[in-house]
Design a protein that fits this description.
It is built from no helices and seven strands. The chain is mainly beta. It has a single domain (8-98), classed as Thrombin, subunit H (Beta Barrel), CATH 2.40.10.10. It has a seven-stranded antiparallel β-sheet, with no helix packed on it. Strand 3 and strand 4 form a beta hairpin. The chain starts with 7 loop residues before the first strand and ends in an 11-residue tail after the last strand. The model has no long low-confidence stretch (mean pLDDT 81).
Length: 101
């Protein structure tokens, strides 16, 4: 179940398959994990966008809440690697209050 947010989560970056075009995936699902302090787990479309900002749009304001760093994959011998979710570094623990669960 997607977590509730006070705004909209998005990732903006230059994907490996469109490296010269800025792409934005709006409406991402993201959560903070107690097992991984300082990590945002997200389900934004991303391939090769390490370093891209994770944004929170709230009303007319936008905040960078994290920086995308990796994708966690599953491997199926019949299909190859399948992305499961992305991980981002949370920039400021104070921003946790902006994301409700």
């Amino acid at each position: 179940m997607p977590p509730e947010t006070d705004g909209e989560i998005a990732l903006a970056g230059y994907a490996a398959d469109r490296e010269y075009v800025l792409s934005v995936h709006k409406g991402c699902v993201a959560k903070l994990d107690e097992d991984k302090p300082g990590v945002i787990t997200h389900w934004c479309d991303t391939i090769g966008e390490s370093g891209a900002p994770i944004l929170l749009f709230k009303g007319n304001d936008a905040s960078i809440i994290g920086i995308h760093s990796s994708i966690v994959y599953d491997f199926d011998p019949q299909r190859g690697h399948k992305p499961l979710f992305g991980e981002a570094v949370l920039l400021d623990r104070a921003l946790i209050g902006l994301i409700r669960f």
